[in-house]
Amino acid sequence: MQNETRQAALAAPELLLAPEWTLLPEGPAQGLGVVVRDGVFADIGPLVELSARHPHLQPVALPQRLLMPGFVDAHHHLTQSFGKALAFGEPSEIFRRIWVPLEGSLDAHALYLSAKLAALEALRGGFTTVCDAGARNSAALQAIEQAASEAGIRCVLGLICHDSAALAGADRFLSRRGALLHPALAVAIPEAVDDALLHATSRLAAEAGAVFQVHVNEHLASVERSLVARGQRPLQHLHAAGALAPQALLAHCTMLTPDEMLLLRDSGSAVAINPVASPWKGNAVAPSELLSKLGVRLGLGTDGTRSDGFRMMDAAESNQRLAFGLASGDSVCGGGRLWLDMATRGGADAAGLSALTGQVAVGRAADFLLVDLDVPELTPSWDLRWELVRLASRAQIESVHVQGRLRLWQGWPVDWDARALLQEVREVARERVAHAPIHKVQPLAASTIKVALHRD
């Protein structure tokens, strides 16, 4: 089937897909058919049987293609995309010197452009769901919601509740649930609010069936700051405030004591591991394999570093091997299955969407990728799950589908002008970054703009 013909076929409202491989929860399988109807996986089984059950559907042959769940980014900052490279080479806690000043310089339209750029990057990297860590005001929330909706990506969107006024409006925000929008509540760091508000925010999220997001034990500076301010480490603080629970989605958790690992296990909290953020701006690597063995719920997140699902899995496995596997002689470090699961089904569970997305299964939302396996890197193929973690790349993603709808074909949206977005972003970002009170420790090596570097 020619590219144009296949693209047109994949845009149909009802599909019987016949990929060579299908990535099921139990592993890759051949010879299956997958029916997509009304935005969900309506039927899955041997192709011959599906053709008989759905005679009105012509199978869309997909030779040398893998149908797999879309990746879930369990921790993102969609409004920070203008400053990706500004954080390179910077020490920890760049939010104080780069992210807060940058986001503060963005008006509603710039926030929208930043979020839509991030959503486009995510889709190109194979993510069908992103979990945004939170916004403090209605302009940012509306900008992210509009951008995600237009891009066609599923979005868990957090309202940051740093005062009683924000919490008072949380019920109204949580009621804004849509087909692709899943409201959540958030606190940036535990010590940002008093314990009563911390507890109330977490409890309200639980009552609404939403997640409660917070950055926890990210790096040494954050741990020490909490110890000085509170006399407790961030995770201990959450536990003492009664905010550690199954609705909690904790970003990072790279610096954990044995007692804290048990707190995670016993509380049922979920953790968003950010494997690229660890070497880029952190002090440690989360003990993912150990946490998994303890039964802690785990997903993978980008933290807004780079939106590439395959490179994210590769970074997660490489980090684990370098930080823990080499010293113990562990040559497996969870294997390909662990990282694939964390990037898809585990991420959906961490984001509170386990009943909706994250796997190719009947009744789940048809959030999926078609991946080209007819490439030198995967020839010959012996263990597809390992190969997806270590050898695959986003260049192999032929199409991205969210809620059954074709959103990207060969890296570009099918129903809106991404090139026009990029041009506008170049113009707006240049002006906004130039006037933001950013304080970079490591100066830019070369740039076509002048960044206002404010030094103490």
What's the pLDDT, averaged over the residues? 94
Low-confidence stretches: none
Radius of gyration (Å): 22 Å
Q: List the total number of helices.
A: 18
Structural category is alpha/beta
Beta-sheet strand percentage? 15-25%
Give the termini separation. Answer: 62 Å
Please tally the β strands and state the result.
17
What is the makeup of the main sheet?
Answer: 9 strands, mixed
**What is the global morphology?**
globular
Fraction of residues in helices? 25-40%
What does this structure look like?
The chain is built from 18 helices and 17 strands. The relative contact order is 0.16. It starts with a helix and ends in a 21-residue tail after the last helix. The chain is an alpha/beta fold and 456 residues long. The protein is 39% helix and 23% strand. The strands form 2 sheets. Strands 1, 2, 3, 4, 5, 14, 15, 16 and 17 form a 9-stranded mixed β-sheet that branches.
Relevant terms:
alpha/beta, 8-stranded parallel β-sheet, about 40% helix
List the helices and strands and how they pair.
Blueprint: H1 3-10, E1 14-24, E2 27-30, E3 32-37, E4 40-46, H2 47-53, E5 60-69, E6 71-76, H3 94-104, H4 108-124, E7 127-135, H5 138-151, E8 154-160, H6 164-168, H7 170-174, E9 181-187, H8 195-207, E10 212-216, H9 220-230, H10 234-240, E11 248-252, H11 258-267, E12 270-273, H12 277-281, H13 288-294, E13 297-300, H14 309-328, H15 335-343, H16 345-350, E14 368-372, H17 384-390, E15 397-402, E16 405-409, E17 412-413, H18 418-435
Parallel strand pairs: 1-5, 6-7, 7-8, 8-9, 9-10, 10-11, 11-12, 12-13
Antiparallel strand pairs: 1-2, 1-3, 3-4, 5-14, 14-15, 15-16, 16-17
Helix pairs in contact: 4-5, 4-18, 14-15, 15-17
